[in-house]
Task: inverse folding
């Protein structure tokens, strides 16, 4: 009879290796590196000073094994620098965008976290990275005590060499860095370099609050008057103010895209610039647009073209048919550079002691159009915005006193009934609904508010019962009860087998709903 074989113990996964210092090194195999093809290990060293050295090593080994089994472990030992190199080599963006990406990667991402392995890039590392950027753009951690020299070459210091003052990066710049990191890490997951995206666990930088500062009408008039000491420069400033075009778009304007008879200007391209290098490219939103011009502007452009033709005739030349509208060449074959016009405008405003810049003329154009009653979609079309005017209203429409007063008068007739009753003696009594107690009341209140404010319009479908159950984590009976209350108020119509929709709401029915709510509050 053959001897019975003793079952062998299963091979233990992972290793706990003693080091000469007395510390313990934990190592767990995590598959092959997709980049190098070599074996990839998760490793961590437990210092010999740890009070529970062996137990801590076992805990780390168990954690690594769980990560491998649940496929949450990084698949590579590549660094953030390696990922960024691969990312820049794969993305398809225009030249201006790429230059912006490379600058932020070179100045901020590589110096601070480029050396980190992707396996070490977690939420804490990313949050710390953003905190450093908010503290100081020089990455001194807010504790810098050094001189910022005007040049890196050997020199004698003067007033331009100043003591460092910490200034954090703007919120918008940190958001852009966050976007670059997000794009790279998203591809790392797609390429199977990472199992999960660590950026999803980190704190997302807040969205910057739009705060446009267009020049006041008096300031705009002063700028225009001073600019017209040079007729070509004055025409440029005036046309920028009228059209709200970006500086690169203004520099790219051509004579063959200006129809003086139909009073229409076409914008098809833009001029990009980085240092001394310039190039022609698509507009920022890759949209071509036609802008109608007023009679005064057309008369100005006719006079300006005539002046340009007369100057060319003096040198026995003619304007090129597709020549640039604003040019230093006799035949207008070249264009003005965007940085040059920005610097010239800044010097002009500095002499006038006006705190504005060339881009603010774009704010000015949008603000004046909206204050004149032009609808946001039309303004968005002139400025070259997408989103049906949402960007225009959110960013480019500053407050105008006269328009604000007019809006206040118009708004009163469109507001719902004020939830406060003013007595003869001037005292106020609230007519608000009592405190919401049940879940169905909360659902009904949220939907009622969306209908009253116009977020849900007549004919729109309200969320289904299934969606309400998932959103509020309630049973189907609770969601149905909320819809039934809205139906009783006359705010929605519902029938068996069909989705509930917002009912048409006249002024009289709206008053009935408010009266019904008040009666319920008094019960």
Result:
């Amino acid at each position: 009879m053959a001897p019975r074989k003793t079952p062998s113990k299963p091979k233990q996964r992972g290793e706990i290796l003693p080091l000469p210092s007395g510390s313990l090194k934990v190592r767990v195999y995590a598959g092959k590196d997709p980049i190098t093809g070599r074996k990839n290990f998760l490793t961590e060293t437990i210092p010999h000073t740890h009070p529970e050295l062996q137990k801590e090593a076992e805990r780390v080994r168990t954690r690594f094994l769980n990560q491998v089994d649940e496929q949450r472990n990084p698949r590579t030992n590549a660094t953030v620098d390696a990922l960024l190199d691969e990312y820049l080599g794969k993305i398809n963006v225009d030249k201006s965008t790429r230059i912006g990406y490379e600058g932020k990667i070179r100045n901020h991402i590589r110096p601070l976290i480029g050396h980190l392995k992707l396996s070490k890039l977690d939420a804490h590392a990313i949050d710390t990275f953003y905190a450093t950027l908010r503290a100081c753009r020089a990455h001194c951690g807010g504790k810098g005590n050094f001189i910022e020299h005007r040049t890196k070459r050997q020199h004698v210091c003067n007033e331009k060499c100043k003591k460092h003052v910490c200034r954090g990066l703007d919120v918008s710049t940190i958001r852009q860095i966050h976007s670059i990191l997000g794009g790279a890490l998203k591809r790392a997951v797609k390429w199977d370099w990472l199992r999960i995206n660590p950026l999803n666990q980190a704190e997302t930088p807040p969205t910057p609050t739009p705060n446009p500062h267009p020049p006041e009408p008096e300031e705009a008039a002063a700028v225009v008057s001073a600019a017209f000491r040079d007729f070509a420069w004055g025409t440029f400033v005036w046309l920028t103010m009228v059209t709200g075009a970006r500086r690169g778009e203004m520099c790219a304007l051509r004579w063959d895209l200006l129809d003086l008879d139909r009073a229409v200007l076409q914008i098809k391209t833009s001029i990009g610039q980085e240092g001394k290098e310039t190039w022609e490219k698509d507009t920022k939103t890759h949209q071509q647009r036609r802008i109608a011009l007023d009679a005064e502007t057309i008369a100005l452009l006719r006079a300006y073209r005539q002046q340009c033709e007369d100057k060319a005739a003096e040198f026995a030349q003619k304007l090129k048919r597709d020549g640039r509208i604003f040019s230093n060449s006799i035949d207008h074959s070249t264009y003005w550079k965007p940085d040059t016009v920005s610097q010239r405008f800044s010097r002009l405003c500095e002499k006038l002691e006006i705190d504005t810049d060339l881009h603010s003329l774009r704010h000015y154009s949008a603000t004046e159009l909206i204050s004149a009653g032009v609808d946001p979609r039309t303004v968005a079309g002139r400025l070259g915005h997408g989103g049906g005017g949402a960007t225009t209203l959110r960013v480019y429409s500053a407050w105008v006193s006269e328009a604000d007063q007019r809006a206040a008068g118009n708004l009163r007739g469109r507001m719902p009934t004020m939830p406060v009753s003013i007595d003869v003696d001037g005292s106020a009594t609230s007519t608000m609904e009592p405190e919401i107690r049940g879940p169905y009341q909360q659902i009904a209140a949220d939907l009622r508010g969306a209908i009253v404010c116009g977020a849900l319009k007549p004919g729109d479908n309200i969320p289904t019962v299934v969606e309400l159950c998932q959103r509020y984590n309630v049973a189907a009976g609770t969601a149905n009860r909320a819809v039934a209350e809205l139906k009783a108020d006359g705010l929605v119509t519902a029938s068996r087998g069909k989705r509930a929709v917002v009912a048409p709401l006249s002024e009289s029915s709206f008053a009935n709903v408010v009266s019904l709510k008040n009666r319920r509050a008094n019960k």
User: Anything to note?
Assistant: Residues 493 and 500 are 6 Å apart (CA to CA).
